[in-house]
């Protein structure tokens, strides 16, 4: 399908033809084909051609047309700055003011203060005010992802006047499929969908047909919680209010899809111990920089395990056979810990695990650890007995594996809950603790048992 | 926010009050409050009350009203069957025919053949035909997630007649914000948004204002690829065509959000070695059943490592100190392998890694492995020298860690690509191979080096 999609795009337009028009300076033919394309396809073309050709594009397209491309584009952080620098500052500022506020803010957030100021200075004051408002909100909150381009009407309007407002706002609003209803203080009182508007009589009053049970979010709410609500209710947009219940923006479903994608990638990369997963294009040095903090931290924590094992050097010295099963035991303990951790972290992230279900889940994990521990322990006893013909070592390794699976499973679910309680993101902080704890306990159990039964072993 | 949301819901309606009306048989008061709620809130209430109270709900609500709840509900697979069994078969069948086809198919898919047939037998033939069509499509394809409730018009219609069609279809169609344009053979020729319709003159012909560059998907396309397209283009719905380009359904953004969520959870749970992450509510036996296959497989693969180490029993027997660093080395190698694996698997899943960028990425990973390996190796040499005052053991462990990080990083990116090439999902199959390969190579390198330099050590 990915290939098909590429083929289809190539059917939709001819990259070489467009490039040729730009090189020839054939503005009319270029605009005729290019402006017919979906902004996403325009952005793909714009991104692919080199800086020289892009300079011609800036001459051929108005800042307003360029704004559509910048709304659709998905770039690495530094690329925004690079592309903006190719443009004339006045052109760039004008383009930014034509963009939806939330998208303009995303771009401006990537610039350094000085560079950002140079744009804000020449933009009109109303837009600058809106942009500064959004820039002030904390990252990952409703305020940071909302847009100011929504349609609102007074509750005393009729359907007819609402439709007139809609038609006028249609070219600017990010969505016209929901109209938000406010009172004279601009406080949110209801919502009505365009679907309901077009099937209603034109003289009906909005307040008689609007939905008063409007679900909204606060400007400081976390984006992940908002994503959950929009997913549950299947909304295309959700209104954002400030502390005094005044409507100040909306969040649309396309931004929420990006949030869901981003948060899932986040949890995933944290489980894998990479600070940021989107680095396919990054240089080896950048990739190494992202991975080293985790590796080095685990290296130091791994030294704790080595120190602890040093206490049993005498036992290991006497029965070298014991060392063979150390990777197996710590590996299995690590695996079962990661499983429990993954379930707990996802459960906390999706809100499935709350205060009430916490104890229930912990109890469940204890039982799960017992079952998996006993099953794996028995299998190991069997394998070692068949392979090495020794029941004693088998029992020792089996018991160690069983116990460490139990401990690892409990730790894997308890530690994220504890860390979450402390207000830290459990996805990022749980891993190293659990890895170390599991290594330490599994080896303590194994070599402790071995030392106790040393007489029978040697 | 999660708490706030709960609070807000509780403001929106009083659970106890509703429950009381049901117990008293006060049908009017119940319907007055309940039907005002958003279907998601209705579903939350319906799910929470016990089976006895639900029996009363079936008496108080029509199958059509119940259909809205079933569209909004998110249940475990078995629960659908359980809830349906509480209803009268005729009531259940009628409810299913009122549901959007895609949602009805989701429910019917959870039932055994016999049970499903009992519903299909009493539903009207047109609905059954549509349902059977969707049931026939393979899971995870466009056909399996599309809905038949879309709005289409002929290209020769006027805006006025299009609006009339829209108003008539509004109560049934899953979205009316896109109207799909077809020719007399029902082949897809264009698309027009409601936004464009309401700002156009009523006498304009659709074909003059429609967008002819309509992006569509084929019925057999993979849902993950479709999600990517809808994310790129910010569509609210996308049309689905069959082999002869006939429009046969649409996929809406709410279903795509579920796909994105599901696929991200999938990748995540596979990385953690759990066959399915959504098991917060599952019994310990069920949870253990989901985790054991992975644990047992790794147990057997771990035996390979133990066997291999058996070859070095003599070396270990002579220098017990060596055993202390085994968990550290295999742990670090495992960690760097998982990092590389995560980047590769996500890159393949999101389509960022394709044929062209493959070699580039592999080369990048070789360099990344070299850098991280050298840095970590040097750190280890330093730590062990300071701690144990032995440069030789430090160099040995440092070299082993450096080499195994390099090997693990290359394996972590190469193996998913290889497995993907073989047509297998790299997320699920790469883990055990890489874990074992990393354990084996890291120990081989470590104990191999140690045996070579044994003279200097003992």
UniProtKB/TrEMBL annotation, chains A, B:
Protein's UniProt name: Magnesium transporter MgtE
Organism: Ureibacillus galli
NCBIfam families with a match to the protein in the record: mgtE
Chain's role: Acts as a magnesium transporter.
Gene: mgtE
Localization per Swiss-Prot or TrEMBL: Cell membrane; Membrane
Ranges in coiled-coil conformation: none
Location of the CBS domain: 146-209, 210-268
Protein's UniProt keywords contain Transmembrane helix: yes
